[in-house]
Amino acid sequence: MKKLASILFTFLLILSCSEDKDDNVSQVSTTFNFTHNWEGTLVTNANFNTIQYINANGEELSIEKLRYLISKITFQNTNGKTYIIDGYNLVDVTNNSNLSFSSVTTIPTGDYTNVSFVFGFNNDDNYNNNYPDLNSTSWNVPEMLGGGYHYMQLEGKFIDNTTTETGYAYHAIRAVDNSGTNLEFEDTFIEVNLGEVTITNNATFNIEMNIAQWFKSPNTWDLNVLNNMLMPNYDAQIMIYENGQNAFSLESVTQ
Q1: Is residue 28 classed exposed, middle or buried when 0-12, 13-18 and 19+ CB atoms within 10 A define those classes?
Q2: Which end of the chain is more exposed for a tag (fewer CB within 10 A), N or C?
Q3: Which PROSITE patterns match (predicted)?
Q4: Distance of CA 54 to the CA centre of its chain
């Protein structure tokens, strides 16, 4: 009887170790790298503060600030189960910081029908003063516009129609109409879908943003008309949302 119990214990121990090993192998980490370009030409903060880009409307412009928020990275597998990566990341191209985001949350290896992330915060996450680190970076939206947080700040200078160097502030937030008694909102966060992927090992997703797209389509952006005070401009925020649908793309996945 003791011999049988010993054999059974040994079998269970081996099975347990085998299961632990399989679990360790099947759980992998993910990293998201963000790079930026202007119609295929690499853009870094070394290219800032010089008027050298031409938008779809023919205006010459520079970039002096670019930072934006990504959140809710989500993996959906072939069985319909979703895995959401904890945390969010404020990509700050100006200061060359947070261009890469790695989470402690792991996911199983396997086939995924879609990988996505949210540009900005969705409504559930877009709380007033809920994130001390974002509060300390002046990322808040004023209460008169409904509070919450920015999605993007893109700033620089452009040559206006009087050939004068003029500043622009292309800021994306949740669209709000504050013309009436009560604030009325429209969702303008963007769910960026990266498509199918098979995960076999620790994976790095290389994501590109084409900055020119924010000025391009479906709305050709006229900086002479829309250069500042865009946050309280409901129609401008809808246009930003529409242009941002194709601003991001998956360049590659390395494993």
Answers
A1: middle
A2: N
A3: PROKAR_LIPOPROTEIN
A4: 24
